[in-house]
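Internal ticket - ligand job 244, biotin:
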Amino acid sequence: MEMINNWIWQSFDELDSTNNQALEWSKSAVSGQRCVITAKKQTAGRGRRGRQWIGGEGNLFMSLVFEAAPCDLSKFVFVSSLALFQTIVVFRKQDDILLELKWPNDVLLNGAKVSGILLEKGDGDFLISGIGVNLAFAPVLDSLVYPAISLKDVGIQTDCKTFLKEFLRQWNMILDLWHDYGFQRVLDIWLEHAKSLGQEIVVKNENKTLKGVFTGIDENGALLLSQNGSLVKILAGDVFFNEE
Ligand code: BTN
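stdout (structure tokens):
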């Protein structure tokens, strides 16, 4: 059993979805253990809101399984995206690469989506954070709601294991910060890198399109949109920026 930064690491050549394997692992996991599952290829990767996630070789597909209160699920969306953001900062050589965070869980590289995060409940007290990172290629999909990009597209060359190791180091540091100073500290750092904070954005979900000023995120991870002086809390949706 290989360990990376205090995580059990299980790697597979091919899986339907690393999140499914993570759920299986959680069924026989022992309290105190945490595990990261990776696959070189995914044949039935899941995205948010019922979308699919393209699983070809070269990109990173991983699921972290860890113990946490189910009510903290949405908080781990921010931990995951901030850890990804900080990992890419470490690998970024040129400062001309623009990195931003987009609510609820996207990392934008030069304005395009470089990763995806899907939080799910595991067995018992375990949560699963499933993360896909476009290391080598940006999938092209008709139904892709947002333009995609890869790290390779901007000249960042890395392999799955090197990226994973740094990512887990960043994750552990963020959890220490949360533990020592409270979750608001994590959110504050996230917001420092958020795209269009204080500016007008559009949020779309199944039945509505809302326009307003992005004023912040509440303690439960809901997006706060100010519309004609009143504050609207949004729990789920896709954010679009004014220039799009
Ligand atoms: C999104 O829609 O942006 C979320 C995509 C999440 C994809 C990752 S890849 C690893 C893990 N396994 C899955 O089936 N999905 C997540």
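Auto-summary: The chain has a mean pLDDT of 94. DSSP finds four helices and 16 strands in the chain.
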